[in-house]
Q: What sequence folds into this?
């Protein structure tokens, strides 16, 4: 309707993108996406058991707060002074506070005060002016369990990552040894999305722990959203050595029980030889092999481009390039059904 008629047209609702993952890749991607008029939801792994997050998890029997903290920070409209304090990490000689961040301690305090991690995150989101929705995949800490190709089994994300061994299968349990379930907020976000994004991040420790939750996997199988996987640029030592883009997709589809991935964002840029400081980034092995024809055979559309951000003697995804691609995918999904 026109302004002359005395009222305005209702603006269209923003597109809905759900990002499922963990680690730095998820928060970096969300930082790029927040530039767009989108309704963003982050669903975050709770299997981390290392560092400050692992210590608070063990002592307070709470979900690990580190990845949640980073996502809250990148989606927050709080002042930079507050965010600098929120992300401040105590030094090595700070006694029992060593290595802890202020943000992790705030999340722990609110969780204890409210008796519920989800309510704590929502209150902190309001306090920080967070642009979007932030949910742990489940409201209790999860144990990540891996069976390796050599038949051995390890429990715990930190130990699995440190083993640098080829993984055969992976699953999650709660502390009682039972199969966990996600809350309705998580499931409804997946079912109501235009686009669901998996990654970027470690295949076995950032992505699979989330989709190993049974009702999350079920929601991904039935959602009408376009499911997009952001393939890693580099393989992870021991775990995904010699993996191609399609190898990553096969693992995800196997975990979900069907060919659920609709599109794969794949890097075509070549990592310069002798650029990476292999000692500093000792968890990576070499560049992921690009095989778009094999990706197509899995029922997914390859979306290709030079997506690299070369910095700090390492190679990362360029958050703005990823966000540009995902915004276009979201618009296409809404316009074309």
A:
């Amino acid at each position: 309707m026109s302004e002359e008629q005395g009222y305005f047209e209702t603006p269209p609702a923003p597109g809905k993108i759900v990002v499922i993952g963990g680690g730095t890749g998820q928060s970096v991607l969300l930082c790029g996406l927040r530039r767009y008029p989108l309704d963003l939801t982050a669903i975050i792994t709770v299997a981390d058991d290392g560092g400050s997050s692992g210590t608070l998890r063990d002592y307070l029997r709470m979900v690990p707060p580190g990845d949640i903290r980073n996502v809250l920070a990148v989606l927050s409209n709080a002042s930079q002074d507050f965010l600098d304090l929120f992300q401040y990490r105590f030094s090595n000689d700070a006694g029992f506070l060593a290595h802890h961040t202020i943000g992790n301690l705030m999340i722990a305090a609110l969780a204890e005060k409210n008796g519920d991690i989800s309510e704590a995150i929502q209150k902190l989101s309001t306090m920080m002016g967070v642009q979007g929705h932030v949910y742990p995949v489940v409201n209790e800490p999860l144990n990540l369990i891996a069976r390796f190709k050599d038949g051995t089994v390890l429990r715990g994300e930190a130990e699995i990552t440190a083993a640098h061994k080829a993984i055969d299968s992976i699953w999650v349990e709660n502390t009682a040894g039972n199969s966990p379930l996600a809350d309705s907020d998580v499931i409804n976000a997946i079912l109501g999305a235009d686009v669901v994004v998996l990654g970027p991040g470690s295949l076995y420790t950032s992505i699979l722990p989330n989709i190993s939750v049974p009702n999350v996997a079920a929601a991904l199988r039935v959602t009408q959203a376009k499911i997009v996987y952001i393939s890693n640029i580099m393989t992870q030592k021991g775990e995904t050595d010699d993996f191609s883009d399609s190898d990553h997709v096969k693992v995800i589809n196997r975990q979900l029980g069907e060919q659920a991935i609709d599109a794969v964002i794949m890097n075509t840029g070549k990592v310069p030889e002798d650029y990476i400081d292999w000692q500093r980034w000792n968890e990576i092995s070499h560049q992921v092999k690009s095989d778009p024809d094999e990706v197509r055979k899995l029922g997914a559309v390859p979306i290709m481009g030079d997506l690299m951000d070369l910095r700090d003697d390492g190679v990362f995804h360029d958050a703005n390039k990823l966000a540009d691609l995902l915004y276009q995918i979201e618009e296409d999904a809404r316009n074309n059904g």
